[in-house]
Design brief:
126 residues
């Protein structure tokens, strides 16, 4: 099976040796997204909820470029520097994902790229 790279100008450009997403068959593997504004490549202004919304906006843009949506997500992984923010992630996730919700893991980590406090990646089945 061949793999196809996915790139959206509506999501942050890759800042390393990776693709925004890779599609293999009906599966799309979206790389971890942090709260970067695509146009400026700067961290979005605002509080934790604003940063989490930007993460989901970035995931959404890549999902759409791949021909799907976040409704096609079957697995999300959320990385947080403070699990106390988990309830806020749930609130934002409910704005972007419909039931049945994807499988999910939430992991507390000591640090994330560019010093952000939230990152998420996704697997879609389109």
């Amino acid at each position: 099976m061949s793999k196809q790279t996915i790139h959206s100008d509506n999501a942050p450009a890759a800042i390393g040796t990776y693709s925004q997403a890779v599609k293999v068959g009906d599966l799309v593997f979206i790389s971890g997204q942090i709260p970067l504004v695509p146009a400026t490549m700067e961290i979005v202004d605002g509080d934790f909820v604003a940063r989490t919304r930007q993460v989901f906006e970035n995931l959404k843009a890549i999902a759409e470029e791949a021909g799907g949506s976040l409704s096609d997500a079957v697995k999300l992984t959320i990385f947080l520097t403070d699990l106390a923010n988990f309830a806020a992630v749930n609130e934002v996730m409910a704005e972007y994902c419909d039931e049945p919700y994807p499988a999910r893991a939430a992991v507390q980590v000591s640090a994330l790229p560019k010093g952000v406090d939230v990152e998420a990646d996704a697997i879609l089945a389109i």
